DNA sequence: CTGAAAGCGCTTACAG
DNA sequence: CTGAAAGCGCTTACAG
């Protein structure tokens, strides 16, 4: 250990670099070590350090889809919360896929201080070796003993159903995400259940990946039939799907919201500035990341998040209905737009 | 080491688990070890292993913007090339920012087998300690001794200028990205230089972040003046900017391409399906990732990528002009659309 | 307050 | 072909 050339033992150096000097190292030695460290440009080797303490200081975030603006906000939240203490690293997988068990094992062999898992499938969780502190994100609909932070998407779906029914819609279509994450099932089922209560008919369904163009195409293909069925509103599983519908509606000269009401989930930035603005269920993405980061921090500090009841581990973040120009009563026709 | 209970030494186990048995371990012992390994569910500890060999098997990809569809393709390319051999991990930074020197030092202390750096600024590279194998991606316009893989964005810009001039445009506007990555400067300068050669006037410029809504807003604000100046085409630094222009043009009932031609850079998926389709310079993102992955692999294998000439380290991927419906001659008016 | 020593879990010459 | 041993760079009881 080069820095031992400060004239002290490696033990002392270690104490100083790790900030455990309180009542254990003299001020003079601290100064000496600090000087030597900066002179030599020394930097603690993460590998040796991690091996000695049994775990590294990295936190690995595992997610099926790194590249979408919604997830970017989640990451921001996590980073803001744990970024100073831990090194946050993203696992990279094929777009839309969770890592294979083999990859996870590799990840785990790095002895991360903790694991953050976003939108896992039930199978993924089942195959996950229970190793070390872990917090789940956005896992609505999946059973797990691990602490989790979720959105209350069902409540949002209910508000959406209330809103549309209140506007007088009686026949709606649902454009779902086909990525197979449980949260989408929860959204859809909650909406359909509540629509039924209001006597609102979910007359048709379609699904695509989370992609504007794919959604536009699916809507274009389905619309003739939906129109025949008397559909006056399209509820979309994500804002991205709604953008596709909005786009296609514009091309087809379908007045929104006069002829067709459109809604989404997420409240991505563009939903505010699109024309018309998109009525959507806001899911607080940044807050999700922050909350998950905080939970992990508590876990790492040795706190027991549990509590006796089963829900003690799970934090649920409220969702919120944001009403904008894309919804109005059915048949309000041209001129009502905006 | 638990697996030593296979009845052999730890050295033998290590030889087997790392696959270096060739002529060094008897078939019987290999079998014994394999059995013990699977019985115990043993998995080589990455920390100990990495420390012993001096470096880990992770490759860290550093990039300013993880969450955009273009970068997703780059990642895909990298993963496809090195994913089997190394553990690819993404560094997480504030959106649009490169990591700070302190973060990079932390990253480096994990002793990654290699580093991949996407779209770095000159300052970032200057501050980067020259540690270990590294390949730069998309670094057009930045000087560096490190091997790099770039797009020939200047050639694309030239083709674009040729195309617009050929269609008869004489006055155009340039909507740039303000993210400050050098590649955007290169695109713009190459375009402007070549426009001038054709006698085409770049009469106005504006810039926004890479965001549809921001671009739409900027265009909406600038258009009155641009129109007064006689602008008949808007050249955008990225496809995303062009989407904003396309959107705003539709709202303002500006016929594209009849009244206004619009172009982009990237060729994102949506550019093919938008209406009209977007004329753009295709930058082969996946191939960029693959090429960079391959370069790094060669570097890690100890190959010298150099060569005597300065360009020996740098691979340049060709760009390609994709002409779609968003460009036509000026003043072709309504009815010419598509 | 300080240093010598053991140990984290592996790999790799080395001697047999 | 095999095992005992040294060593990777740190941290942490432990004895002083």
From TrEMBL, chains A, B:
Keywords: DNA-binding, Transcription, Transcription regulation. One of its GO terms (molecular function) is transcription cis-regulatory region binding. Pfam families: LacI, Peripla_BP_3. Gene3D superfamilies: 3.40.50.2300, lambda repressor-like DNA-binding domains. Residues 1-53 form the HTH lacI-type domain. This is LacI family transcriptional regulator.
């Amino acid at each position: 250990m080069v820095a031992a050339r400060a004239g002290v033992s490696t033990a002392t150096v270690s104490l100083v670099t790790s900030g455990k000097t309180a009542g254990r190292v003299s001020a003079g030695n601290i100064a000496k070590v600090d000087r030597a460290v900066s002179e030599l440009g020394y930097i603690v080797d993460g590998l040796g350090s991690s091996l000695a303490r049994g775990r590294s200081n990295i936190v690995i975030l595992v997610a099926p889809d790194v590249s979408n603006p919604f997830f970017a906000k989640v990451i921001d939240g996590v980073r803001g919360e744990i970024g100073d203490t831990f090194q946050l690293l993203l696992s990279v997988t094929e777009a839309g896929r969770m890592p294979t068990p083999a990859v996870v094992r590799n990840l785990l062999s790095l002895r991360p201080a903790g694991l953050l898992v976003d939108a896992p499938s039930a199978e993924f969780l089942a195959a996950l070796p229970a190793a070390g502190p872990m917090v789940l994100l956005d896992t609505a609909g999946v059973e797990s003993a691990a602490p989790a932070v979720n959105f209350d998407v069902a409540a949002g779906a209910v508000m959406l159903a209330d809103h549309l029914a209140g506007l007088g819609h009686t026949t709606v279509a649902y454009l779902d995400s086909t990525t197979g994450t449980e949260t989408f099932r929860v959204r859809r089922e909650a909406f359909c259940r509540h629509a039924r209560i209001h006597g609102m008919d979910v007359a048709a369904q379609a699904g695509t990946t989370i992609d504007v163009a794919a959604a536009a195409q699916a809507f274009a293909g389905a619309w003739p039939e939906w129109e025949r069925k008397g559909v006056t509103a399209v509820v979309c599983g994500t804002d991205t799907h709604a953008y596709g519908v909005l786009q296609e509606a514009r091309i087809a000269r379908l007045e929104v919201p006069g002829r067709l009401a459109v809604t989404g989930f997420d409240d991505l930035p563009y939903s505010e500035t699109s024309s018309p603005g998109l009525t959507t269920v806001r899911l607080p993405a940044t807050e999700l990341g922050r909350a998950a980061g905080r939970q992990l921090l508590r876990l790492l500090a040795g706190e027991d998040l549990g509590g006796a009841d089963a829900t003690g581990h799970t934090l649920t973040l409220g969702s919120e209905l944001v009403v904008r120009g894309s919804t109005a009563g059915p048949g309000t026709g041209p001129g009502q737009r905006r």
